[in-house]
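Feature request disguised as a bug: please show the residue count (136) next to RDD domain-containing protein in the output. Example input:
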Amino acid sequence: MQQLPTVGQRLLSMLLDHVVMCCILGIVMTPFVLSSFDSDTPERGVFFETKDWIGMIGMITVYALKDSFGGRSVGKRVLKLQVIDRNSGNTASPVQCFVRNLLVPLWMIEVVVTFFNPQRRIGDRLAGTRVVAVPA
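Example output, currently without the count:
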C-alpha cells in the first residue's frame, strides 16, 4: 500500500506548483503582452485578437501538462509526491495529468476540496488519478 500524502503536503505542493507555473508563464508571456500595447493598434474593446487566444490556450496547455513528466511537477518532486492512476497504481499518463489539471480555473475550489480529501481533488476524480507520497 502506498503512503498517503498529508493535507499540508498537498496544499504546499499546489502552492509551489502555482507559483512556479505563474513565474514561468509570466516570463514567457511578457513579450507578447508588451507587444499588444502598440500605439498604432486601435482599441479592441472586449474582443481578443487571434494571437491573444493562442497565447491563453498555450498557457492553459502548459499549466495543464505540469505533472506529465513521471507524474511529478516541481512541487510534487520537492515534497516527494506523485500522481498515479487510481486503478492500476502506475504513474499517471500525460493525458490523465492534462485532464486532471484542466480545472485550474477552479484552483481555489480545488484547495478547499483538498482539505477534505488530500489524495483526490476534483481533477483527480475526473482523470481517474490520485496523489501518493513516494519513498525518498
